TrEMBL record:
<protein>
    <recommendedName>
        <fullName>G-protein coupled receptors family 1 profile domain-containing protein</fullName>
    </recommendedName>
</protein>
<feature type="transmembrane region" description="Helical">
    <location>
        <begin position="130"/>
        <end position="151"/>
    </location>
</feature>
<dbReference type="GO" id="GO:0004930">
    <property type="term" value="F:G protein-coupled receptor activity"/>
</dbReference>
<keyword id="KW-0812">Transmembrane</keyword>
<keyword id="KW-1133">Transmembrane helix</keyword>
<feature type="transmembrane region" description="Helical">
    <location>
        <begin position="29"/>
        <end position="50"/>
    </location>
</feature>
<dbReference type="Pfam" id="PF00001">
    <property type="entry name" value="7tm_1"/>
</dbReference>
<keyword id="KW-0472">Membrane</keyword>
<dbReference type="GO" id="GO:0016020">
    <property type="term" value="C:membrane"/>
</dbReference>
<dbReference type="InterPro" id="IPR017452">
    <property type="entry name" value="GPCR_Rhodpsn_7TM"/>
</dbReference>
<feature type="domain" description="G-protein coupled receptors family 1 profile">
    <location>
        <begin position="1"/>
        <end position="181"/>
    </location>
</feature>
<feature type="transmembrane region" description="Helical">
    <location>
        <begin position="82"/>
        <end position="101"/>
    </location>
</feature>
<dbReference type="InterPro" id="IPR000276">
    <property type="entry name" value="GPCR_Rhodpsn"/>
</dbReference>
<feature type="transmembrane region" description="Helical">
    <location>
        <begin position="163"/>
        <end position="188"/>
    </location>
</feature>
Length: 199
């Protein structure tokens, strides 16, 4: 989700900079941001690794994972989980709205016959895929978010299959990234069809 948010930010910057957008500089910045993002997420998630213990159950002859948090670490973990799921969504939606508003303002300057609201409606229809994609990702990752908040992994639950199915549902956005972003966008779909002719 964070990488999708970074792509959304880059897309917004390219719209605002227009012809002054430097693709090579953008690639360099992306390289460093990916490394920085990985380090930050790892450092902020390290408490989960430190507090994870394996409990050997002699009666059932099984091992259980047990996460023991103090109250402040539990609060920290909940806030971090909430931020980790909803900040990228907010960035994606905000980027989409900024792109739509900026392109509408550009069009108002060239087409004085149409009002801003009419042009905004046309741009919303044209760029609806920018708003739909983050919402689809949110819906598909929501079960994983809920599990990470409520799951108590020290004993097996009667809702095991629900947890398992919801966990695998959260991987659908990554598995179907092509469908969510390329097929949903008329421009990307057209470019994809052009590249198919070469193969």
């Amino acid at each position: 989700n964070w990488l999708n948010a970074c792509v959304a930010i880059e897309r917004t910057v390219s719209v605002f900079q227009g012809v002054y957008f430097n693709k090579n500089k953008s690639k360099q910045i992306a390289y460093y941001i990916i490394i920085l993002l990985f380090v930050i997420i790892f450092c902020l998630s390290i408490t989960q690794l430190v507090k994870l213990h394996v409990f050997e159950d002699k009666i059932e002859e099984r091992s259980w994972c047990v996460v023991t948090y103090s109250s402040w670490l539990q609060t920290y973990s909940s806030i971090w989980t909430f931020f980790h799921y909803f900040a990228p969504l907010f960035i994606n939606l905000l980027s989409a709205l900024l792109i739509i508003i900026k392109t509408t303002h550009q069009r108002v300057g060239t087409q004085t016959s149409l009002s801003f609201l009419i042009l905004l409606g046309l741009k919303l229809k044209k760029y609806k895929h920018l708003l739909i994609s983050p919402v689809i990702i949110l819906i598909l990752t929501l079960p994983h978010f809920i599990i990470s908040i409520i799951l108590d992994c020290n004993k097996s639950s009667h809702l095991f299959w629900f947890y398992l199915i919801a966990y695998f549902l959260s991987f659908i956005p990554a598995a179907f990234i092509f469908i969510i972003f390329v097929i949903a966008s008329p421009l990307y779909r057209q470019e994809f069809k052009k590249t198919q002719k070469f193969f």
